[in-house]
Write a structure and sequence with these properties.
With 339 residues, this protein is mainly α. It folds into 4 domains: 27 residues; 76 residues, Endolytic murein transglycosylase (Dna Ligase, domain 1, 2-Layer Sandwich), CATH 3.30.1490; 84 residues, no CATH class; 128 residues, no CATH class. Helix content is 47%, strand content 9%. It has 13 helices and 6 strands. α10 packs across α12. The N and C termini lie far apart (102 Å).
Length: 339
């Protein structure tokens, strides 16, 4: 009797184990997450396999992180997840998700666009990577070619004639066969996600527009480096605009002249250009660079200060900022900086 009982117990345990194995493998290959709509999922540089799997589970793309980890381990995919942004949904199976986030790791072309580059500089970086930079530049600077206005509300203003300022600086991974429009779309999608609905509401509450905010941010980006300085300088520029003063920004003048000088003098200051803020008051007609998040936040949430002047000088690759409340203090700072 005991023998039969032991056999029965053994059979039950074996069935449970085998059933569990089959259930686990079924979940690995055929389970879905709870999220039914498509959303973007970001894998950041340095994230580990379990970190990524946990994030996928938390956001509803998969039902359990261990299913994904098992699949990665048994298919030689550990540490082969590609940083970047992916459009995924919970209706995808784990093999399909893994196929998306690992495909092309050896073929994808990584391009980093630092904050403050112009659209021409972005195009050159693409050309340097054997991507269609010239076509990218043509699309970004020729508004009649666009079908972007209907896709992005931040481009709906007909005065916007260039994508300068709206091509968000970041690290991207492009397919080697990516078209110029694919690349432009990826950068605009990123900008659209970064500029949150709250930020857009706060821009409106300041009686400003997205375009003017990005123009200001693009100038701030080129003038100073730290988030703290950006907020102070944005406040100084807004005070000048509100009081009718000229911005007198060397960054706008550099955009017109095509140089990277911290300071200009002589005939440069008399340049006949809508980007010469030493001659003209108000903002220039377009952004002068593609600003990052710190500069955009500074333009939306500037810091009030008692300063009305500032100057920058580059020392060992770092921009140092000197502030002044009066013009006499500003002249003393210029002398101190050797300008």
């Amino acid at each position: 009797m005991d023998f039969r009982k032991n056999i029965a117990i053994f059979m039950i345990v074996a069935v449970l184990i085998i059933g569990g194995i089959f259930y686990f493998r079924f979940e690995v290959y055929y389970s879905h997450g709870s999220l039914k709509t498509s959303r973007f999922f970001e894998i950041k540089e340095g994230e580990g396999n379990l970190d990524i799997a946990g994030n996928l589970e938390e956001k509803g793309f998969i039902s359990n992180k261990w299913y994904l980890y098992y699949y990665l381990r048994t298919h030689g995919k550990l540490n082969r997840l590609l940083p970047g942004e992916y459009e995924l949904s919970g209706s995808l199976t784990i093999p399909e998700i893994v196929g998306n986030i690992t495909q092309g790791k050896d073929m994808a072309i990584k391009v980093t666009f630092p904050e403050g580059l112009t659209v021409k500089q972005l195009a050159q970086r693409l050309n340097d990577k054997s991507l269609p930079g010239d076509q990218f530049l043509s699309i970004a600077t020729d508004s009649p070619k666009w079908d972007f206005r209907s896709r992005y509300d931040f481009l709906s203003d007909q005065k916007i004639a260039t994508l300068e300022g709206f091509l968000f600086p970041d690290t991207y991974f492009f397919d080697k066969d990516a078209t110029a429009e694919d690349i432009v779309t990826k950068l605009l999608d990123n900008f659209d996600r970064k500029l949150t609905s709250q930020m857009r509401q706060d821009i409106i509450s300041r009686n400003s527009s997205i375009e003017d905010t990005i123009i200001l941010a693009s100038i701030v980006e080129r003038e100073v480096q730290t988030a703290e300085d950006m907020k102070i300088v944005a406040g100084i520029f807004l005070n000048r605009i509100n009081s009718g003063q000229r911005l007198q920004s060397d960054a706008t003048l550099s955009y017109a002249l095509g140089d990277n000088e911290d300071s200009h003098s002589g005939k440069d200051l008399d340049l006949d250009s809508p980007y010469n803020s030493y001659r003209l008051s108000g903002l220039p007609p377009t952004p002068i660079s593609n600003p990052g998040m710190n500069a955009i936040l500074a333009a939306i949430y500037p810091q009030a200060s008692g300063y009305n002047y500032f100057l920058t000088s580059t020392v060992n690759g770092t921009k140092e900022v000197m502030y002044a409340k009066t013009y006499d203090e500003h002249l003393a700072n210029k002398k101190k900086a050797g300008l």
